[in-house]
Amino acid sequence: MLISVYVPFVVTAVLAVCAPRPALRLPPRPAAWALACAALVSAAGWAGALALLAFTGVAQIPEIAEEGRWSVAVLRAHDPVYLVVAVGSALVLAAGIASLGVAAVRQVRDIARVRRECAQLPGDTELAVVDDDVPLAFALPGAPGRIVVSRGMLRCLDGHEREALLAHERAHLRGRHHLFQSLWRLTAALNPLLRPLAVAGGFVLERWADEEAAERVGDRTVVAHAVGRAALASAGASRPFALAVTGGAVPQRVRALLAPPPARRSLPFVAGGLLLAVCCASLAGAASDSDRMVDSAQRARCATHPGFTSPPPAGDHRHAVARCCARPDHPEGGERHP
Known about the structure:
By secondary structure, the protein is mainly α. The chain has helices spanning 7-18, 20-23, 28-58, 62-68, 72-78, 83-120, 151-156, 159-174, 177-190, 195-217, 220-233, 250-258, 267-303, 317-325; strands spanning 127-130, 137-140, 146-150, 243-244. The chain is built from 14 helices and four strands.
């Protein structure tokens, strides 16, 4: 466990540094799913590793060992985690959980506000045209979602570009891109090292919608012009939790639309999958080692008692410990009969 428990930290750092750049060059739809899986697995591995470090260190405190009925000496021999490491891990984990709770509350508030805005929009169709000279176009997720376009934005685009804009926003709603955004925001709140994945994910979602709009319209150049004109017209006008055609790095999106569609490559996905598999296997191995370590420490505690005659058989650790600690002559278990 001494080494395997630290592997999730290494995997998280490698993904945070290496994953965003290739994700921007891959087909956006599988790239978005890959980034979501990477963020979810690495965040869980990060939290699990911190919890194991905190437990194995705190468990060596004599008062806690007395309550758990295990041997401190055996724990230290199997996995000598310094108390400062355990306390630091516990503090980092507590801060991450608190940050995750705050982010979750904000997400719930944003969703509630979006639903209220959807209910207040005119009409009951998917498209809502608002009488506003400020160029605006964005999708509000919901059940169902709505596409909001201002008259000012419609005046900035010609007929084909309007079709491309609407196709882009429909792709956001159809792909439920707001769920990807929520996942990346929550995992980045739990583990700040995952913020590069969240930033790259936001760009990939816009590219995903761009590519679907290009397929619908049948002309990548038209979509590129629509994205560029809409971004220039609505510079600085954005809304939180809204998915807009003007989101992301617009120059990079326009260049990608003017180029051929990205080629499919399997090597980055295979490499990322292997890293996530290593993270899961290491965390599972560390948890199993921790369980066996505690069992051994409990058996050693019972073996040192004068009334204990032989060590419990392998494979029956918990039942043996329970029998040992429940003996009438054990100082911490059972009743004393005359």
